[in-house]
Amino acid sequence: MEIQTIQHIEIRQESDFPTQFFRLYHTHLLCEKGKISFLFNDQKMECIEGEFLFWFAESRLSGLEFSPDFKAQVLLVEKAYLMDNVPDQSWSIDAQLHSRTYPVKTALTEVDRTRIRTNFQQLYHQFTQENHRFYEEMLRLQTRQFILEMWHTFANEYERRKHSLQTGNLYERFMKLIPEHCMTQRQVQFYADQLHITPKHLNYLCKTHSGVTASAWIQRFVKERIIILLQNKHLNSTEIAHQMDFSSNSFFTRYVKKLLGVTPTEFRERMER
């Protein structure tokens, strides 16, 4: 099956999506009418009229349900192409981790929604201009502009969530602390100290709310961050180990081997196949 790098389509039901879209494409969806419900990382979520959602390719996504009046504008970008053109800056990692936790963006103004529609149209239009003498270069530039515009649109929501750690119950606060600190903090004790409880009590809360231990939750987020960093061709293994505050590159390599089943070098070699 030939994969079209970029698709801009209108969706009313699941059959309107391309086959296996959730495996092949990163999905950008602006809900124009009605609502869509789904399971994301085993959590029930929904996106209603006027909201936006973003699914990474190969997300743990299932149980899609559409209201009878549902309608949405969708832009699909082939998974490798989008990641290869992410602007190389610190915002990239934070924005990716935020979307992996909070795929639905709710606080949108009409200006935001207009910007999203325009952004969809401009990227897809550039994709169709195959006769342009500098087609590949122009499409890469437009893709990077697309990503920057999307980051700009959701920056306020990201910052709002980032500074909301003092609200919610202890479990919710723990789940908000992990993406903020997992880059350098991988021990349950750290998070228990932040919440002024014991590690045993934190594990009890996590098992009660989710059936998953605190250490397993931390490991999930650390794994996602390591994969994102290893996908960044501008960073070598030593730089990643330093960013994640590992005492040495060899310790980082052993940690990755235990977490992913392969070394950082082997992981990158598989990406190139």
UniProtKB/TrEMBL annotation:
Keywords: DNA-binding, Transcription, Transcription regulation. It holds the Pfam family HTH_18. The keyword Cytoplasm does not apply. Residues 172-270 form the HTH araC/xylS-type domain. SUPFAM superfamilies: Homeodomain-like. It comes from the Bacteria. Transmembrane segments: none annotated. Gene3D superfamilies: Homeodomain-like (1.10.10.60). This is AraC family transcriptional regulator.
